From TrEMBL:
Family per similarity comment: Belongs to the carbon-nitrogen hydrolase superfamily. NIT1/NIT2 family.
Entry-linked Gene3D superfamilies: Carbon-nitrogen hydrolase (3.60.110.10)
Annotated ranges, domain CN hydrolase: 6-261
Protein name (database record): CN hydrolase domain-containing protein
Length: 296
């Protein structure tokens, strides 16, 4: 794959009142236009993006909310396919609740300009998702080749598990896309700091997006807290803090940054440390079968 400099945009999408689904899609299109203006080749929308459509419904219980969001699945897929084809941009359309078998999944969809799309289900569900959303977890990870590099997807809580990013790095991922939804600062900083840790550990880029704003009358998605960003290893030749782009906290906006695959290659070959290479799995394996966590 040719190594190039490319722009990525991460979206801070504001939840709030909606008058129609057409208004929702206009808002999505406006963010995409901003990304086009910034020259982006890849755009990352947040987790539970289509949960915003609950603003068009009466208050629902959690199962009904899943059914309501799933009713937009065909429209969600065809609209993002059209957006990607028309703009020539690879788009992570956030995540969308859709039905698989007798249950629902929290699924990230990645759309390509040639009309293809792939689906990555969230593997690690939060206690709230298990209790409230009636979701089932995914059971694997994949990587996907794009025009700017090989990407993997870790949705929000997924990135808090180092093994997840390690699996993607072992499959050759250069970039991890992390759509997130956190409703207050504690959750945000868990995801943000883990995103930066995964970038350091695996010598990769991480692109983090999130929901912001308020829908206090919608119990499933009543508030969002985020400062989206694009992160690199905190090592030469990148900035010392590893931050390539950062949004303004809780503002409706996109943040755009440039990733340089040649710089990533240089980091992997001539950085100050090489955590991706210097791991000692033979040591960790001694403890893998004996170190357990028991739920109370």
């Amino acid at each position: 794959m040719e190594l190039t400099i490319s722009a990525i945009s991460v979206v801070q999408y504001a939840i709030g009142p909606l008058n129609s689904k057409e208004e929702f899609w206009r808002q999505v299109a406006e963010h995409l236009q901003q990304a086009i203006n910034d020259g982006s080749k890849l755009v990352v929308f947040p987790e539970y993006l289509t949960g915003t459509l609950l603003a068009l419904s009466p208050v629902l219980n959690h199962y009904e909310a899943c059914q309501f969001i799933d009713s937009f699945t065909n429209e969600y897929i065809t609209t993002f396919q059209q957006f990607s084809k028309e703009t020539g941009i690879t788009i992570l359309g956030g995540t969308h609740i859709t039905k698989e078998g007798d249950s629902f999944v929290n699924a990230a969809f990645l759309f390509f300009p040639d009309g293809r799309y792939v689906q990555q289900n969230k593997v690690h569900l939060t206690p709230e998702e298990r209790a409230r959303w009636n979701l089932k977890p995914g059971n694997g990870f994949s990587v996907y080749d794009t025009a700017i590099g090989r990407v993997g997807i870790l949705t929000c809580y997924d990135i808090e598990f180092p093994e997840s990013a390690r699996a993607l790095a072992d499959m050759g991922a250069d970039i991890i896309l992390c759509p997130s939804f956190t409703d207050e600062a504690h959750g945000y900083y868990r995801v943000r700091l883990c995103s930066q840790a995964r970038a350091i550990e695996n010598q990769i880029f991480v692109a983090l997006s999130g929901l912001v704003g308020y829908m206090p009358h919608i119990p499933q998605i009543d508030s969002g807290y985020c400062q989206a960003g694009i992160f690199a290893p905190c090592d030469y030749p990148f900035p010392a803090d590893g931050i390539l782009a950062l949004g303004e906290t809780n503002e409706s906006m996109i943040a755009t940054g440039k990733i340089d695959m040649e710089m990533l290659k240089e980091n992997r070959e001539r950085g100050q440390v090489f955590p991706a290479k210097d791991r000692r799995p033979e040591v960790y394996a001694k403890y893998a079968s004996t170190t357990t966590v028991t739920e109370s």
